[in-house]
Specification:
The chain is of the alpha/beta class. It has two domains: 207 residues, P-loop containing nucleotide triphosphate hydrolases (Rossmann fold, 3-Layer(aba) Sandwich), CATH 3.40.50.300; 139 residues, Orthogonal Bundle (Arc Repressor Mutant, subunit A). 45% of the residues lie in helices and 17% in strands. The chain is built from 14 helices and 14 strands. A five-stranded parallel sheet has the order 2-6-10-1-11, with helices on both faces. The radius of gyration is 23 Å and the shape is globular.
Length: 358
């Protein structure tokens, strides 16, 4: 997919990667807003610098088990950091580990020791390590038993006093690498804003984390892109009322080549999103349908709603359900909730109009 200009975001992240490590950076934003694409552009732009990127894209995997976590993060070889074969074109690395290691015998302390060894080897080579984990929240359900320090993903072991979350322990390691030792940048990318809320309210991470929002494209940039792609003024003026995400532009361009008008494509998108929301509401058993529609009605005339208004209307549980199902986006740092895209907003408004006429 063509990379559409995100100069401000790219420059911020390139500069950040070249500063002294001092915090964990959480890059967040609506689904498909271009977070991973921007990060990959940063990596490519800095490929000839003195930075060594350890990059792990967890969206490529089903929710990892303990064994899968280890195989994802480590590569067997004779060095402490080795090319990540799954991201070979990107020129990034994985943590190195001796050949024929038995992961079943690995304790959590063993894992952290190996990570530290890799990072320290980069520093000793006169280079700067940057660790990037895309969709870090997928590690939430891996736990380990402190009695023997072995990993577990078994639900029966998750809540005992002797079991701890791998993710929480990783955060402690990240704080050590960034805030305390200033050895390595750690950048975590996610579109799961309920996860960001957990992180934001975690007292351990309170003074050790920064947050950077990669949001919708702005209208000026969208207009520029569409004109460059040969859209007429009428098509541009119509489209900017609906577009907000990079992939929508690509889809619009492709559909135009296939003979669909701008109006036809956008109407299809709205109908698809409207049907998805209706199916979601109609098939869930947790909430009263009326309360979910009441939550959506807050967005009938406003595209953003302050979190205080949600709390005041006693609709936080319903809103979180809609966030979790990617109908809404929670910008926890700025205290607002909005649809995941402008198309989603139009779908919500059409649904509300239908609901109110019944």
């Amino acid at each position: 997919m063509k990379f559409y200009d995100r100069e401000r975001e790219v420059n911020f992240l390139k500069t950040y990667c070249q500063l002294e490590p001092n915090s964990i950076l959480f890059v967040y934003g609506p689904k498909s807003s271009g977070k991973s694409t921007v990060m990959r552009r940063v990596i490519k732009d800095l490929e000839n610098s003195d930075i060594v990127f350890f990059y792990y894209n967890l969206r490529k995997y089903a929710t990892p088990t303990k064994d899968e976590f280890l195989s994802i993060f480590f590569e067997e070889g004779d060095k402490k950091y080795l090319p990540n074969k799954l991201e070979f074109n990107l020129g990034v690395c994985k943590f190195g580990i001796e050949k024929n290691q038995d992961f079943k015998k690995f304790s959590l302390n063993d894992v952290f020791a190996k990570i530290n060894e890799s990072i320290n080897d980069v520093v000793e080579d006169g280079k700067k390590p940057v660790l990037i984990i895309d969709e870090l929240q997928k590690l939430k359900n891996i736990y380990f038993n402190t009695e023997n320090q072995r990993f577990s993903a078994s639900p029966s072991l998750r809540f005992g006093d002797r079991n701890k979350s791998l993710l929480n322990e990783l955060f402690n390691l990240f704080v050590s690498l960034t805030k305390m030792e200033h050895l390595c940048h750690v950048i975590c990318i996610t579109s799961d804003t309920l996860f960001i809320e957990e992180v934001y309210n975690n007292s351990t991470l309170k003074n050790t984390s920064k947050y950077y929002l990669i949001d919708w494209l702005n209208k000026t940039d969208i207009e520029k892109i569409l004109r460059e792609e040969g859209f007429t003024e009428g098509e541009v003026n119509y489209s900017i009322n609906y577009l907000s995400l990079p992939y929508e532009i690509v889809d619009l361009i492709e559909n135009k080549k296939l003979g669909l008008t701008v109006e036809e494509t956008i109407k299809q998108w709205i109908n698809i999103e409207k049907d998805k929301i209706l199916y979601l509401i109609g098939t869930q058993k947790e909430f009263e349908m009326e309360r979910l529609f009441k939550a959506l009605e807050l967005f009938k005339d406003n595209i953003t709603i302050p979190i205080g208004d949600i709390i005041k209307n006693n609709l936080m549980d319903e809103i979180k359900f809609l966030i979790n199902n990617e109908v809404l986006f929670y910008d926890v740092i700025n205290g607002i909730i909005k649809p995941t895209s402008i198309i989603e907003w139009h779908a919500i408004k059409e649904l509300i109009n239908i609901y109110e006429k019944k």
